[in-house]
Design a protein that fits this description.
By secondary structure, this protein is mainly α. It has one domain (3-44). The protein has two helices and no strands. It has helices at 3-24, 30-44. The model has no long low-confidence stretch (mean pLDDT 95).
Length: 51
């Protein structure tokens, strides 16, 4: 894994954690979370997390 791939993976995972926290607090819905996750996958293209 290159440094760039590692950084993308890290950014994706941090973003997912934050999004899940927002959902658990009722600030976003499950549907909004799913949309955010799709956008994050497209943006960061994580290698491990997309398996």
């Amino acid at each position: 894994m290159t440094k760039e791939q590692f950084d993308q993976e890290k950014s994706y995972r941090i973003s997912v954690i934050l999004s899940k926290e927002l959902m658990s607090k009722g600030l976003i819905t499950k549907e909004e979370y799913d949309h955010i996750d799709t956008m994050l996958l497209e943006k960061y293209k994580p290698i491990i997390s997309s398996l």
